[in-house]
Amino acid sequence: MRLADFILQNMEPILQQWEDFAKMLTPAAAGMDALALRDHAEQMLRTIAADLQTTQSPEARILKSHGNAPRSNTITSAETHADLRHASGFTIGQVIAEYRALRTSVLALWLPPDHVSKDQEANDVIRFNEAIDQALAESVVTYTTAVETARNVFLGVLGHDLRSPLGAVLLSAEVLLRTGDLPPKPTKNVSRIYMSVKRSIKIVGDLLDFTRTQLGSGIPVRIENNDLAQTCRGMVEEAQAYHLDRQIDLLTEYTLPWRFDKSRMEQVIANLIGNAIQHGEADTPVTVTLKAVDGFALLSVHNAGRPIEEGAKASLFNPLIRHLQGGVEYGAEAGLGLGLYIASAIVSAHQGSIEVESEAGSGTTFTVCIPSIVD
User: Fold this and answer.
1) Rounded Cα gap, residues 12 and 18, in angstroms
2) pLDDT tens digits, residue range 53-105?
3) What CA–CA distance (Å, rounded) separates 22 from 26?
4) Which of 44, 62, 116, 323 has a CA between 20 and 30 Å from the CA of residue 75?
């Protein structure tokens, strides 16, 4: 009996072994009925048997081994199985273990009769393993997608819920500072509260922006006519007020009318200046340059200091990546390390680009390029 026929004729004992194994994987499985424990296993086995009974060319085998097997647009039983196992509290390791157990069970139960040749036996085993691997790959991709979606929704809800209490603390601290009648020591403490909460609100904002990009909606921008030079000048003045011990030079024309999202570009400029201050040499200036060239606005932020390592440049704008240089975290000023990633996403939303040049002796320069017209 060929392996495909064996699977179809011995479905119940195979499913029983699947059920018995699944029941041992997690405490939650102890309370599941047979239907839930066998979730979509029969459909997967029938799909595997049908695959074994289908003639496969060498070219098709190569495509399948590369993960390029043709498939319909419908959701497979393996994908549905992964979603339900995730919802039932199974870990990804336990889902993988189910497929390993299924593979072992079927091959151990199947004893090829004498009339099945060695070539047929080997072909059946190879095709069976390919089909199991295909189902496993579908389940793993679906499971990890479900985990990422759940995580991003959680982060979005968390960030949204944190904004209100943090805003109340910030407003209260601001009111106390404006009274002007606090003694020096309380004034200093309230100032620390104000700055810490303001930084926390920035981190929460970065978290929400990160969640938007991960959920596929992207960072929203409102393109309007505004003055890019004045926006840049305002962010330089704000950064200088926070860093009285650092020199920040601005090189730009007095005005530069442009179409852009003012609040979002303020985020970009603040992130790049903060990054330059954090990682530049303390006794050297940070230079911000803005100019228009051939229909593009070019904004560059330069700092002297140790260059970014070549191996770090490729992942510099990736989320939650921290680069260590001499024991110092290389990333955005925010503790989550999302600043550069969010800056890149905002620039992309403006149909622009952001690049970095960093060499020993010449320092590091981030350059943002924004087109003049955005559809």
Assistant:
1) 10
2) 888 888 877 777 666 666 666 888 998 999 888 888 888 898 899 999 888 88
3) 8
4) 62
Can you spell out the DSSP letters for 86-118? HHTT--HHHHHHHHHHHHHHHHHH----TTS-H
The answer on pLDDT for 368 being more than 90 is yes
User: What fold characterizes domain 3-151?
Assistant: Globin-like (1.10.490)
CA angle, 178 then 181 then 186, to 5°: 90
Q: Please enumerate in sequence order all residues whose Cβ is within 8 A of that of 27, keeping only pairs 6 or more positions apart, or say none.
A: none
Rounded CA separation 221/256 (Å): 19
Q: Where are the alpha helices (DSSP H) in 180-248?
A: 184-214, 228-242
Q: Which fold has domain 224-371?
A: Heat Shock Protein 90 (3.30.565)
Q: Which residue has the tokens 């997690």?
A: 26
Which residues lie below 8 Å from residue 355, measured CB to CB, with a gap of 6+? 366, 367, 369
Placement of tokens 């149909």 in the chain: 351
Token representation of residue 112: 């090829």
Continuous segment of H or E residues that includes residue 289:
strand 286-293
Per domain, the residue ranges of the chain are: 3-151, 161-214, 224-371
Among the listed residues 58, 341, 373, the one whose alpha carbon sits nearest the alpha carbon of residue 210? 341
Q: What is the pLDDT of residues 299-337, one digit of tens each?
A: 999 999 889 888 778 778 877 555 434 444 444 344 556
Range list of H helices, 215-350:
228-242, 262-279, 310-313, 339-349
Q: How many CA atoms lie within 13 A of 31 on its CB side?
A: 4
In the structure encoding, which two tokens stand for residue 116, read together? 């099945």
- In DSSP terms, 248 is beta-bridged to 286
Q: pLDDT tens digit string along 124-182?
A: 888 888 888 888 888 998 988 888 877 777 777 777 778 778 888 888 888 888 887 88
Hey, what's the torsion of the CAs at 307, 311, 314, 315, to 10 degrees?
A: -90
Are 363 and 304 in contact, with CB atoms under 8 Å apart? yes
